[in-house]
Design goal:
Number of helices: 14
CATH class: Mainly Alpha
Order of helices and strands: HHHHHHHHHHHHHH
């Protein structure tokens, strides 16, 4: 039953997150908010709403290991699994990507996050530092987007100029009701699984919850890989990792203090940094992510799961 509740919670979270994005995007555009601003704020926050709600719910439920494990585990899964699977299926032509600046932002965010964890427990003051980093990243993205903007409005995920108001309000309601419900089911189910099998909440966060919340990114990168859009796949992972590090724990720490399990300091955080640095050949030296690399990434992720669980 615990696995059923956790799975049901995950499905509700993913569907509610998508509904919230669609509703919020269309309300914003109807109110005259520029599409560019909507893309950089509402869509970015909305697609990470499941991870955010899980972390907040876990902290309030006195299961902070799930909150921190979700962020660290998701970032590891994003590189090794989310990029590894599409590379294994079709390869990724990453030599054509221009993501150096975003990559260095991700490395800086990773280092900042590790420093904050070593200064832990993570309080609201640490959270403000992380959120300040997020503001700098969003500000830079806004400046760059304005510099490269073409004539006319940009396409925004979830935008539908023909959508009626009743449908917009329905999407908003489904998102606002479904997100907390799904988060509660997933956290409660995951916590019970941890107790039943005698593993820590941190392990559940690093594995079950992290993989589940990385499924949307995985679906996006697989489709991008099949369509030969390596820039979409790589950019999706880098952007998601930056947001996970700076926003999710940053906001969660404003709700409650997040203690840091010693296991994170000795192993998991360093694996997260190593998986970020493993992208150096593809980002800085423009190498293609071939099927062999995809195989290696997936095997490394399987090895990580074995080490964490056993």
């Amino acid at each position: 039953m615990d696995f059923l509740f956790a799975g049901l919670g995950l499905v509700i979270l993913l569907m509610a997150g998508d509904a919230l994005v669609r509703g919020a995007v269309n309300v914003s555009l109807r109110l005259g908010v520029p599409a560019l601003i909507v893309s950089l704020t509402i869509v970015a926050f909305g697609t990470s709403a499941p991870e955010l709600l899980i972390s907040i719910r876990a902290t309030l439920a006195d299961a902070p290991g799930i909150a921190l494990g979700n962020v660290v585990g998701s970032n590891i899964a994003n590189v090794l699994l989310v990029l590894g699977v599409p590379a294994l299926i079709s390869g990724l032509n990453t030599s054509d990507c221009r993501t150096e600046k975003s990559f260095w932002m991700m490395i800086a965010a990773t280092v900042l996050f590790i420093v904050v964890c070593f200064l832990g427990p993570i309080t609201w003051m640490h959270g403000l530092v992380l959120l300040a980093g997020l503001v700098l990243v969003l500000g830079d993205q806004l400046r760059e987007a304005l510099a490269h903007r073409r004539n006319g409005e940009d396409d925004v995920e979830g935008a539908d100029p023909e959508m009626r108001w009743w449908k917009i309000l329905m999407f908003l309601a489904l998102g606002l009701i479904g997100l907390p419900l799904g988060a509660e089911l997933l956290v409660d189910g995951a916590t019970s699984i941890a107790r039943t099998f005698g593993v820590s909440e941190a392990v559940i966060g690093l594995t079950l919850v992290a993989i589940g919340t990385s499924l949307p990114e995985l679906a996006t990168t697989v489709m991008a890989g099949l369509r030969r859009q390596a820039d979409v796949a790589l950019g999706n992972v880098i952007g998601s990792n930056i947001f996970n590090l700076l926003a999710i724990i940053g906001i969660t720490s404003l709700v409650g203090t997040v203690p840091v399990d010693p296991g994170f300091l000795t192993f998991d955080l360093w694996v997260m940094l190593a998986t970020a640095l493993i992208l150096v050949p593809f980002v800085l030296y423009r190498r293609n992510m071939t099927k062999r690399w995809g195989t290696l990434f997936v095997l490394l992720y399987a090895a990580f799961l074995v080490v964490v669980i056993y």
